[in-house]
Design brief:
five-stranded mixed beta sheet, 11% helix, 19 strands, UDP N-Acetylglucosamine Acyltransferase, domain 1, 3 helices, mainly beta
Length: 206
């Protein structure tokens, strides 16, 4: 298990399965059967409860407390002194914030992003074409948190969308979309949805 710990005000990678003394020296407590994803950042004096799950590359702040059986998603950021006593209900605002770090507006609408090909094609389904101002809906799709990559359309944060687009090594565009909380089917580091409306298309190929 490789995680980042603070050393001399900088994050340094340690293999804590080989040497747990680094945790003790920083007053970090990791409970029984807790699971810490690789490359997570654990702040000094953080407490992680029994059976808690911390996703890979998640960030847990100094003196933060993660309760027993709580789940923190991949790339999630928990600030200094924060207390997560339990995992919020699936698809709640709190649950989505823990996994993706974003909040909705007063109508329950999220602003989310996706990298696609220059011609509007999805990188995963060449038959699906995204267009400016497009609204799409499939009410036959059902919520299922256990299915991360399945039927429906997938959106993520702006930074994650750009990172994915850059990784394709071909020109791409970013679409910005509005998704209502009631239309979300699953939430991980991205959300799988049954409906969306495209609000903007951004060409980052300067």
């Amino acid at each position: 298990m490789k995680i980042f710990l603070i050393e001399n005000n900088e994050w340094k990678l340690f293999d804590i399965e080989k040497d747990s003394s680094e945790l003790k020296s920083r007053n970090i407590i990791i409970g029984y059967s807790a699971k810490i994803g690789n490359y997570a950042e654990i702040g000094n004096s953080a407490k992680i409860g029994n059976y808690a799950e911390i996703g890979y590359s998640a960030k847990i702040g100094n003196y933060a407390e993660i309760g027993n059986s709580a789940e923190i998603g991949n790339y999630a950021e928990i600030g200094d002194y924060a207390k997560i006593t339990k995992t919020p209900a699936h698809f709640s605002r709190e649950y989505i914030f823990i996994h993706m770090g974003i909040l909705p507006n007063s109508n329950g609408d999220y602003t989310v992003y996706k990298a696609i090909k220059m011609n509007g094609q999805s990188f995963f389904d060449c038959n699906f074409i995204y267009k400016s101002g497009m609204t799409w809906r499939d009410n036959l799709l059902k919520k299922d948190q256990a299915i991360e990559c399945g039927e429906g359309c997938h959106f993520t944060t702006y930074n994650n969308a750009v990172c994915f687009g850059e990784g394709q090594h071909i020109p791409y565009i970013i679409i910005e979309a509005k998704v209502n909380i009631d239309d979300i089917l699953a939430v991980h580091q991205k959300m799988r949805v049954k409906a969306f409306t495209i609000t903007r298309i951004m060409n980052l190929n300067f």
